[in-house]
Amino acid sequence: MHALKKNRPLRRMTLAAATTVTGVVLLLSLKPHTPPAPAEASSSVGHSSSASPGGSSGDSSGSSSGGSSGSSGSTGTRTVTGDTVQTRWGPVQVRITLKNGRITEVTAVAYPSENPRDQEINSYAIPQLRREALAAQSAGIDSVSGATYTSDGYKQSLQSALDSAGL
User: Fold this and answer.
1) 10-residue stretch averages of pLDDT, the chain, 167 residues long
2) Which segments of 7-96 does DSSP mark as H helices, in order?
3) Residue 102 forms beta bridges with which residues?
4) What is the Cα 159 distance to its own chain's centre?
5) How buried is residue 53: exposed, middle or buried, by Cβ count under 10 Å (0-12/13-18/19+)?
6) How large is the angle between the packed helices 116-136 and 148-165, nearest 10 degrees?
7) Residue 92 and residue 108 in contact, taking contact as beta carbons nearer than 8 Å
8) How far apart are the C-alpha atoms of 9 and 3, rounded to whole Å?
9) Count of other CB atoms within 10 angstroms of residue 8
10) Which residues pair with 65 in a beta bridge?
């Protein structure tokens, strides 16, 4: 005779209750992506591993820090840092080097790297965005699939740097 036949209602109720409790426990044990801790805009070369709390809306919001530039007049080479753009997963900031009006280097100063998934995505997205920016010589570059928020922040910060440089 089968265990769930109608002549054993107590066994069925016990099994249903145990299944429900197990399902609820599993559901509650899921851990969503935690919002990154607040951080100040970084001006050092490298990348920022922190993000701002305002980045949970899903959209890129305005920038929080102005760009800066330095120049060495005799060679026509100068460096301009774009605004820090807050994205859903963290801040993105780009620094460009210009020589005689052409972009010769693009560096991501800050980008999301709070967790291993961010690091994995940006390990392929940042170099791709850099190559495209150098080839296009503008902020009119394609987004990297799987890194939409970082791509959008990168393009906004790049455009900010280009605007600051007068290009």
Assistant:
1) 64 90 84 51 39 38 44 66 88 90 88 87 90 88 87 90 85
2) 9-29
3) 99
4) 17
5) exposed
6) 40
7) yes
8) 10
9) 14
10) none
